[in-house]
Amino acid sequence: MNGVDLSKISGYANAYSSTISGILYKELKLAAEGINVIENLQDEMLMPKLSVKKASRPYDGVFAPDPNQFEFSDRKLRVDLAQRDLYLTTTEFRTTYLAKWAASYGSNSDKEKQIPLPAFFWGEYMKNIASEVVGMVYNGLGVDKFATFASGTSYSVGALVKITTTNTGKSRLDYFKCITATTAGQSPITHPAKWENVNDLAITEGFEQKFLKAIADEGFDSIVSTGDITVDDALDQFKAIFRGLSEVQRNKGAVIYTSLSDKDTLVDCIDNKYKGFQRNDNVFLLPGTDGKCKVLAVDWLAGKKRKICSLPNNLTVGTNKLSDMNKLFSKVEHYGIETSLTYLFGTEICDLESVVINDQP
After folding, report:
1. Looking at the DSSP assignment, which residues form a beta bridge with residue 197?
2. Helix, strand or coil for residue 128?
3. What 3-state class would DSSP assign to 173?
4. Which CATH class name applies to 213-314+351-358?
5. Confidence at 343, pLDDT banded by 50, 70, 90
6. From start to end of 193-262, where are the E strands?
7. Judging by beta carbons within 10 Å of its beta carbon (0-12, 13-18, 19+), is residue 231 exposed, middle or buried?
8. CA distances from 46 to 107, 116, 205, 227, 350 (A)
9. Dihedral sign, CA of 208, 210, 213, 219?
10. Per-residue b/e over 289-311, b at no fewer than 16 CB within 10 Å?
11. What are phi and psi of 280, to 5 degrees?
12. How far does Cα 127 stand from its chain's mean position?
């Protein structure tokens, strides 16, 4: 009985890399959301913020400049290394809906020697990677948040641990979040239902961790109290967040990032207050801001109550190179192919003075 020629699916990834990368770029769409995407990073870079102090004075003919007129940011964008591994065998396709595009096993036809719809397969694979990256943008925790699992410890919901597991015969570190309280000895291995694997969130810190650290360590206090956004007060709450910026900043224009659910609540609030209000849902401008504030629902805040109001290109993500995120390195084995992908990714807030958040995480 002949098997599917796995070199077909491996070769497709190389031959059509630009097509595959286009899928990833389309799914990420961070730059289109006003996020500053910095490529070609290998480790870290200082954020490009320069503050120039006031120093003009009435003329007296004496050259006596004020000292320290320039202040550079010490905030750093750091990227962390991630990997994605896949072992694929031909038998995985036999009982799936993709099987109808392949000939029956043992027919010796040319059709049998092709992986069904390689374009579709790789497209879905890259979409999944993109969804993981989008999840890191806000929710990323970073490896430092995870403690080594201790067998004598009882864990409460939300606890983060790392533990060595065995996967395909090889040992590796996996990262878990406790979702049901445990008693001593109930590990992710012995009681997996009490733990959620969050390997993707351990890769790097997202914006939420950056804000929490800024609050704790840098005195960041540009926080507007909103409570839950409701259909009765959504417009007032969104305007309050926008007005947390200075007048000069508001005149430059800003974006409020939100979940789609809370944007829907805002839309309902506006419809209730202003019957017949005309709006462009593709570019949603907040009423009462003279067109200076755009409201944007983003995937990386799905299910969250956090609102982030920022000047454009202030929220920043970095990677080694976006095109590197689609380079799949494959090795054809006797029963399948081993495919690996590595990339660098990180987030940072360039200027804390140009961003306002609400008090809901």
Report:
1. 176
2. helix
3. strand
4. alpha beta
5. confident
6. 195-197, 223-224, 254-258
7. middle
8. 60, 47, 17, 35, 9
9. negative
10. beebbbbbbbbbbeebbbbbbbb
11. -105, 105
12. 13
Sign of CA dihedral 21, 315, 205, 228: negative
Give tens-digit pLDDT for 198-239.
999 999 999 999 999 999 999 999 999 998 999 999 999 999
- With beta carbons less than 8 A apart as the criterion, state whether 345 and 317 touch: yes
* CB burial of residue 98 (10 Å; 0-12, 13-18, 19+): middle
Paired tokens of 275: 């019957």
The CA–CA distances, whole Å, from 73 to 30, 45, 353 equal 24, 11, 11
**Which pair of tokens denotes residue 11?**
């070769």
Cβ neighbors of 43 (< 8 A, separation 6 or more) are 78, 79
- Give per-residue pLDDT as tens, 40-50: 787 778 776 66
Cα 72 from chain centroid?
27
**Residues, the chain:** 361
Q: Say what the pTM is.
A: 0.81
Residue 256: how many CB atoms within 10 A of its CB? 26
Looking at the structure, give the CATH architecture of the domain made up of residues 143-202: Ribbon (2.10)
Pairing of strands 70-72, 44-46: unpaired
Mention every residue, 6+ apart, whose C-beta is less than 8 A from residue 95. Answer: none
Give the position of tokens 């993109």: 130
What are the sequence ranges of the domains in the chain?
7-50+74-141+318-349, 143-202, 213-314+351-358
Residue 293, both tokens: 């504030």
Band of residue 118 on the pLDDT scale cut at 50, 70, 90: low
